Amino acid sequence: xxxxxxxxxxxxxxxxxxxxxxxxxxxxxxxxxxxxxxxxxxxxxxxxxxxxxxxxxxxxxxxxxxxxxxxxxxxxxxxxxxxxxxxxxxxxxxx
Length: 95
Prior knowledge:
- The chain is α+β, with helices and mostly antiparallel strands.
- It is built from 3 helices and 6 strands; from the N terminus they run ααββαββββ.
- Strands 1, 2, 3, 4, 5 and 6 form a 6-stranded antiparallel beta sheet that branches.
- A hairpin with a 4-residue loop joins β3 and β4.
C-alpha cells in the first residue's frame, strides 16, 4: 500500500485538517469524562451526593469491576466539594 507523499498531504484543505483535529479532541473528551448517573440530596438538603459512571478510560483501567463509578459529596449551601473525588468504586464498594 502506498503512503501519501508529503506534497499530496499539503493539498488537503485546511478545513479538512481542522475537522479531523476537532473530531480527535471530541473523542478524547468523550473518553475521559465521567457521566452523571444520579444525584441524591440529604433530608435537610445540606449535602448532595452525586454518582457518576466512570469514563471509558477508567473502565478500561478497572476492567475487573462490574459497574465502576465515581462518588462526589458536596455541601449544598457553599457548593464545596467535600473530601475530594472518591476512587473508582463499584456502587457502594470502594476499591
